[in-house]
Automatic annotation (TrEMBL):
The keyword Hydrolase applies. Its EC number is 3.1.1.11. This is pectinesterase. Pathway: Glycan metabolism; pectin degradation; 2-dehydro-3-deoxy-D-gluconate from pectin: step 1/5. Belongs to the pectinesterase family. It comes from Hypothenemus hampei (Coffee berry borer). The keyword Protein biosynthesis does not apply. It comes from the Eukaryota. InterPro entries: Pectin_lyas_fold, Pectin_lyase_fold/virulence, Pectinesterase_cat. Keywords: Aspartyl esterase, Hydrolase. It is an enzyme of class 3 (hydrolase).
Length: 293
């Protein structure tokens, strides 16, 4: 079991694994939101040998290891956590092995990140982009290029402005007790740019035929739809364009009600529509191909 925690520094860090075979550099741990604090300490920092007071990453580790809640919660599950500016990752596989539970593989909190030729794997909440300690008004931009992301539930989520270029999104076999959902952006209402998926491939196992949702807004902090405030509450922004969408998608109902609030999906199909009108969802598709388009 391994974890990587990188706290913000003035150094713009680049990590390169095996650019020809990312699977040969495999960083893995099994951490779910229900992992106990004691198990977390034993898995992540056995005998106190990996993270010690004074280390740069001590703050993140100790914040999770000191929780009084009994379990660590989703925000302490990342196998790979990085914050700062100008970070690059290439040729690496990051895998959270938690099953049927929330468990983050990679969590980013910063600006000008470039993740290229990587594989990110898990079950739920695999790739968290821009949901770290940064204030919501700060710019967080991420480019993900030539990579593979595999999961089942809300497995790409967060509030950053992200471009996915030449990325394969592979939805694994659906658990009968859950819904398969790919994207769950929680874009700030004043931000016009959330997730852009372009030149990419959205696919999954054959048993998922017509069962997968493309996405839903993550109305973080809104406990029910009656408390949603257009223009104040998060309103996830997603554009999928010029990509292949296989028949795993439920084309009749491609978007699910919002996470946490259960706000029903609604859209404006008018030619003169305002794409930033927060009284509607901001989830769009353009010029895609495939049976699920």
């Amino acid at each position: 079991m391994e974890t990587v925690y990188i706290n913000a520094t003035y150094v713009q860090l680049t990590i390169i694994g095996d650019t020809k075979d990312p699977s040969s550099v495999h960083i893995m741990a099994s951490l779910s939101a229900q992992t106990s604090v004691e198990d977390y300490k034993n898995i992540v920092n056995p005998n106190g040998t990996r993270y010690q007071e004074g280390d740069q990453a001590w703050g993140f580790y100790n914040g999770c290891a000191s929780r009084k809640t009994g379990t660590i919660g989703t925000d302490c599950t990342p196998v790979f956590f990085v914050e700062g500016e100008g970070f690059q990752l290439q040729g690496v596989t990051v895998h959270n092995g938690a099953t049927n539970a929330q468990g983050i593989a990679v969590l980013t909190a910063g600006d000008k990140f470039h993740l290229m030729n990587n594989v990110f794997m898990g079950y739920q909440d695999i790739l968290g982009l821009g949901i770290g300690p940064s204030e919501s008004h700060l710019l967080e931009r991420v480019l993900i290029h030539m990579s593979v992301i595999e999961g089942q539930v809300n497995y790409v989520f967060g509030g950053a402005s992200v471009i996915f270029n030449e990325v394969t999104f592979n939805t694994l076999e659906i658990n009968p007790n859950s819904s398969a959902i790919i994207f769950a952006p929680d874009t700030a209402p004043e931000n016009s740019y959330g997730f852009l998926v372009i030149n990419s491939n959205i696919t999954g196992v054959n048993s998922n035929s017509s069962k997968v949702y493309l996405g839903r807004s993550w109305d973080q902090g809104v406990v029910s739809s009656e408390y949603y405030e257009a223009g104040k509450s998060p309103n996830g922004q997603l554009v999928i364009r010029e990509s292949n969408i296989d028949g795993v998608i439920n084309v009749a109902t491609p978007y699910a009600p919002a996470a946490t609030s259960q706000r029903p999906f609604s859209t404006d199909l008018s030619i003169t529509r305002n794409l930033d009108n927060n009284t509607y969802n901001r989830l769009w598709e353009f010029n895609n191909t495939g049976d699920g388009a």
